[in-house]
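Exam revision sheet. Question 4 asks you to relate a sequence to its structure. Input first:
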Amino acid sequence: MGPVMGQANGMVRMIQDGLNDMTVLYKYIFYKAYHFCINVFKEKDFPWMFATGVVSITFVANIISFLELIEYLMLPSRINIYGEYHGYFSLGLLIFSAILMKYNNFYQKVLKEVEEYSVEKRRRMAFISVAYVLVVFISLIYLAYLIRENT
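Answer key, C-alpha cells:
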C-alpha cells in the first residue's frame, strides 16, 4: 500500500470517527429533550415525538446554516431563490425520523444507550450539546441578519 492509499484510509477513518461523534451527540440531545418533555410538559404518551422534533430541527438548522453560508458567499444575489425548499426538507426529515424512532421502539434503545454513559461522559456531552445547539441557532440567526442586510 502506497502513501496515497494510507492517506485515503486515514481520511476515511477520520470521517467515520466524526460521524460517530455526531451520532453520539444527537442521541444525547434526543435523551435530554425526551426527559425535558416528561419533566416540564408532563407528557407521558409522546415524549419521543417531541425529542425527535428537537433533534430534527437542530439537524436541519445545522445543514441550512451551512448551505446558506455557502450560497451567501458564492451567489449573494440569488440567495432567496433557493430558500423555499427548506420547509419540505424539514418536514420530510421529521417524518422519516419519527418513523425510524418508533420502528421497533428504537427510541428506547437510544435512551438505554445514553443512560449507560459514564457520569464524566454525560457531563462532557451536556456541555457540548448545549454549546452545539447555541452555536447552530446563533449562526442561523446571524446568517439571516447578513442576508437581510445585503439584499
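Marking note for examiners. The two ends are 52 Å apart (CA to CA).
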